[in-house]
Amino acid sequence: MGSEAERCNIRPLSLRQACAEVKAPMIGAYLHIPFCAYKCHYCDFATSTRTEEFGKRYCQILEREIKDRLSEAADKPHISTVFYGGGTPGLLDIEYLNQIHGTLLKNIVLLTDYEISLETNPETVTREKAKIWREIGINRLSIGIQSFNDSELTALGRGHSSTDAIKAIEIASDVGFDNINCDLMYGLPGQNLTSWQNSINSFIKLANKYPQIKHVSAYGLELSPAAPLIKMIPLGSNAYPSEEVFEEQLKYLVTALEQAGFMQYEISNFAKSGYECRHNLNYWKQGEYHAFGVSAHRYIKPYRSSNWRSLGRYLDDCLTNETCELIDQDLARTEAVMLGLRMNDGLNLKLFKQSYGEDLLDTHKEIIEKLIAHNLLAHTADRLKLTILGQPVANTIIGEFLQ
């Protein structure tokens, strides 16, 4: 079994040497569970509906990957956040999840103040499962609700109703989860501003009833060319909200949620004070993280690598990377701009200059002045921040700084 660098075909440092040089602990671990009961129309993630066929074997291979990859480090990594993503990890048989989690815990040092998240869909949340998730140690539940409008859920190919979503929140709260995230989506086919407002208002009503809801992830619909929804409803169809309506949906989202006590801290993420998703914050702040499972991406300085996207190839060869790149200073700079501007705190100009030797106020003076004049960007103290008008066109704005 070769080292991480050897599997990347890059040999300046072995992984053991790289880990030994890192002073701060590795604080993140991501585990990908690809199984779903059905394929949503908008999804292009690495998923499989063949849970029974591959479940046991996948569990065994995933455990092997965890042990083999972590055995390369000089010491057990100190982990403060664990995230089970997918797919639908909540669909996985409890026995398999327990085995995987037990293997992970044997090969890491889990810090006391940990955050362990598990993604699931409303229809997979049962009282029995939720109790065992809590017993295993999962303390943050992320529920993919997407919409409280049943016709929109049908258009997305979801397998639950708004009633199922409410029931899932009730169960999770009753069994002791006090950190629940809800996923929502806007820009959906058949969705207008009024239906989106109704969905947000339904969520706020639910959050008032169940204060255990501490976090909201709300994403504007983005479709890859391979998404089945494009074949069903082609892009450009009048079924999708116009750009103007999309912007109004985002404005209403931010205003309504902040009035309800959920403060925006990243373009698509809102939280009650102190309940920001620490696992994702680590990504956005360019922290390091281990990752296991089909298509999983890891970042152990100075390399970012990913596992095979094909489930078959991963099961046959879980320790060979499909992609690997050296994160050099130039690439780190690019990502610092991209991630910094997505955060509500904005891009810290002083820290950026210290890290990359560049004063953006000098090198991008004309661009910054133009964006500020159009009220797309704000310059406050030592930070550059997107305005509410800039958020819907964030990718375009960020691109201006990468030229």
Task: For the structure shown, list the relevant keywords.
alpha/beta; pyruvate-formate lyase- activating enzyme; Arc Repressor Mutant, subunit A; 2 domains; three-stranded antiparallel β-sheet; 42% helix; 21% strand
List the helices and strands and how they pair.
Blueprint: H1 4-7, H2 15-21, E1 28-33, H3 51-70, E2 78-86, H4 94-106, E3 109-120, H5 127-136, E4 140-146, H6 150-156, H7 162-174, E5 180-186, H8 193-209, E6 213-220, H9 228-232, H10 243-259, E7 263-266, E8 269-271, H11 278-284, E9 289-292, E10 297-300, E11 303-307, H12 311-316, E12 321-326, H13 329-342, E13 347-348, H14 349-356, H15 360-363, H16 365-373, E14 377-380, E15 383-386, H17 394-401
Helix pairs in contact: 3-4, 8-10, 13-17
CATH top-level class of the largest domain = Alpha Beta
Weakly predicted, low-confidence segments: 1-26
Roughly how many Å apart are the termini? 41 Å
CATH architecture classification name of the largest domain: Alpha-Beta Horseshoe
| Assembly level | single chain
Total separate domains: 2
Strand content: 15-25%
Indicate the CATH topology of the largest domain.
pyruvate-formate lyase- activating enzyme
Counting H and I runs of at least 4 residues, what is the number of helices?
Answer: 17
What is the mean pLDDT?
A: 90
Strand order of the largest sheet: 7-8-6-5-4-3-2-1-9
- Annotation, overall tally of beta strands: 15
What proportion of the residues is helical, as a percent range? Answer: 40-55%
Shape designation: globular
Quick rundown:
Helix content is 42%, strand content 21%.
